[in-house]
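Input structure tokens:
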């Protein structure tokens, strides 16, 4: 198998399960040394590490809660200390909290934590990483089709967090272009084994709105991320790559 990322160091936030774990595996298979973060499941994180190392890859996990924005600089320092540098940042870590904007019983604490994780936390990691990314570096932010079109009720807060980091990434593409660092977005859709989705009726409506009318596999979205991390995407920046089954078609 071709290893176009040999010699590169990648950080994947939220890499112990789902899309994050699939991305860790693929980047490692393509030759990168990969660090990833997790919050609570040390056992799952260790399983991803063991799988990568079992295939001869260099993989390491760091416990880091993205909702704590003050942790971002230390996380980047830990990755650089372990691997000697940083070339690829994949902003994958996110949580989902659904609820209508006029819900009198809304769990505002949970919503605030989502905003901290999905928006402020991503910004903090991008800021910290941008200072150490080597020439030719890559920033890839995982967004959602909901960032472009809400489509179903109850997702206003989640959609807002994704739209926010999407535009922040666009701004990063402008700011960092002079250093030959690219910044792009992957708009992901519903995935097998992903975060908790909407209720049965909303899920049926959502899947029915897709051109492909099925949930995606994490490996399919990870392939889009790996492309943007690869040398083949050297002239792609400030772009949004849709990997959501045709949600906007």
């Amino acid at each position: 198998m071709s290893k176009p990322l040999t010699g590169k160091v990648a950080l994947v936030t939220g890499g112990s399960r789902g899309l994050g774990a699939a991305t860790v595996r693929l980047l490692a298979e393509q030759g990168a040394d990969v660090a990833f973060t997790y919050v609570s499941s040390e056992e799952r994180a260790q399983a991803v590490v063991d799988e990568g190392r079992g295939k001869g890859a260099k993989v390491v996990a760091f416990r880091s809660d993205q909702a704590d924005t003050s942790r971002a600089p230390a996380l980047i320092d830990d990755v650089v200390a372990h691997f000697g540098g940083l070339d690829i940042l994949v902003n994958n870590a996110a949580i989902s909290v659904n609820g209508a904007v006029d819900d009198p019983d809304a769990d505002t604490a949970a919503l605030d934590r989502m905003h901290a994780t999905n928006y402020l936390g991503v910004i903090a990691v991008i800021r910290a990483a941008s200072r150490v990314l080597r020439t030719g570096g890559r920033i890839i932010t995982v967004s959602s089709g909901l960032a472009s079109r809400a489509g179903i009720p109850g997702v206003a807060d989640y959609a807002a967090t994704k739209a926010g980091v999407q535009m922040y990434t666009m701004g990063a593409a402008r700011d960092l272009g002079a250093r030959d660092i690219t910044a792009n977005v992957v708009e992901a859709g519903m995935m097998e084994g992903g975060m908790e989705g909407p209720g049965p009726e909303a899920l049926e409506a959502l899947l029915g709105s897709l051109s492909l009318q099925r949930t995606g596999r994490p490996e399919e979205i990870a392939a889009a991320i790996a492309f943007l991390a690869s040398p083949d995407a050297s002239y792609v920046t400030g772009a949004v790559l849709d990997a959501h089954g045709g949600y906007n078609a």
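The helical segments are 18-29, 42-54, 72-83, 108-130, 156-176, 200-208, 218-229. The first strand starts at residue 9 and ends at 12.
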